[in-house]
């Protein structure tokens, strides 16, 4: 599990007791940060890598093109260093809209879908599972409009299981 505080905030191993799950989520991380610390993932030779990153980039005003370029480099490097691994790029989740406009997240997710297709990664679109009809985070799944509560993590995990065929 690779990403920012959304990834870091879950005890993934508890949900997957029969597997070894390494949580490489770092609070406040951005795509460049993940790119710079890929060795902390690849050295373990995982069978799967689940990447979610980008909301902090958007909050900090980093251009979508730069975010997508970083994520494309991440996916390419993972594919090169872990040729037998399944690489999954997950969409950025909606927020309550205070920090980032929904349109920005949707545009980034569309670019991510394309980046995954170009690099051979699998794309997992989590956004619809967490969005209201107004493209805000479903209030019952978050404690602050960005980060998930337990119910939110259960939905995320189920989506990963459905998408990866676990």
TrEMBL record:
Pfam families the record matches: Lipase_GDSL_2
Protein name per UniProt: GDSL family lipase
Domain SGNH hydrolase-type esterase: 2-153
GO molecular function: phosphatidylcholine lysophospholipase activity
Species of origin: Luoshenia tenuis
InterPro entries: Ester_Hydrolysis_Enzymes, SGNH_hydro, SGNH_hydro_sf
PANTHER family: SGNH HYDROLASE-TYPE ESTERASE DOMAIN-CONTAINING PROTEIN, THIOESTERASE 1/PROTEASE 1/LYSOPHOSPHOLIPASE L1
Taxonomic superkingdom: Bacteria
Transmembrane stretches, start-end: none
């Amino acid at each position: 599990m690779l990403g920012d505080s959304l990834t870091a905030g879950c005890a993934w191993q508890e949900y997957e007791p029969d597997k070894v799950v390494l949580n490489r989520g770092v609070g406040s991380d951005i795509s460049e940060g993940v790119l710079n610390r890929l060795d902390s993932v690849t050295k373990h030779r995982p069978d799967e890598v689940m990447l979610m990153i980008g909301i902090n980039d958007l909050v900090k005003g980093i251009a979508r093109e730069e975010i997508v370029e970083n994520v494309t480099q991440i996916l390419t490097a993972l594919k090169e260093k872990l040729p037998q691994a399944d690489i999954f790029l997950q969409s950025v989740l909606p927020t309550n809209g205070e920090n980032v406009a929904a349109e920005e997240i949707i545009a980034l997710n569309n670019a991510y879908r394309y980046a995954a297709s170009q690099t051979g990664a699998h794309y997992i679109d989590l956004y619809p599972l967490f969005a209201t009809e107004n493209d805000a985070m479903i209030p019952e799944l978050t404690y602050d409009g960005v980060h998930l509560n337990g119910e939110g993590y259960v939905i995320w995990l189920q989506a990963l299981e459905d998408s990866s065929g676990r």
